[in-house]
Here is the input.
Amino acid sequence: MRADLAGVPVVWRLTGGPALMPSPGPQPLPTQAPTSTPPPITGSPDTPVTGTPDPRPGVPVVATGTFGGSFALRYFDVAVGELQVDPDGTAWGAHVSVCYVAPHRDANAEGTTRTSLDPWAWFVQDGEGGGPGEWVAASETPTTTQWGPAYAEKALQVGECNDGWVTAAFGNPDLFLPKLRYQPADFGDSIEWTVRR
Here is the structure.
């Protein structure tokens, strides 16, 4: 039987419970190219653009894309490669990458900046009881070693990246985690990756 859960199709097995992913083993959900594009380069006819323009946005970025997409922010390139769910539907994992690409004024004295799990959050819905769902900080969710290495705190110099898996293992197959958000406290950016509909 097929049902629709908050706009996301769910297949119910005759043995009970939603079958969100095929078995065996963790499998990626469908991905699609990101929906955001860099702003166009503009200039007046009297001031020609010379050299290579900076593709960095000049303001915080607020955008939504699908798993598999990447975004160029003012100081970072941020990507979420794929979302996987274990066969029981009790654990979720997303491979993420944050690259420090342009220096910012609040960097450490030696030029590094701190990256951590703090900006990441899962959107958690009750797939059986319904309801609006809520954002839960990834640093506050139970984790799993099913995927690795885990995304961990790391100081980066410009040009370096931090990548790994952000996981959630609530142990409840009725919970559905269709979104992951990156929202650092200090820069105003808010990017959501969601399951393609």
Remarks:
- The radius of gyration is 19 Å.
- The chain has no helices and 15 strands.
- Residues 1-53 have pLDDT under 50 and may be disordered.
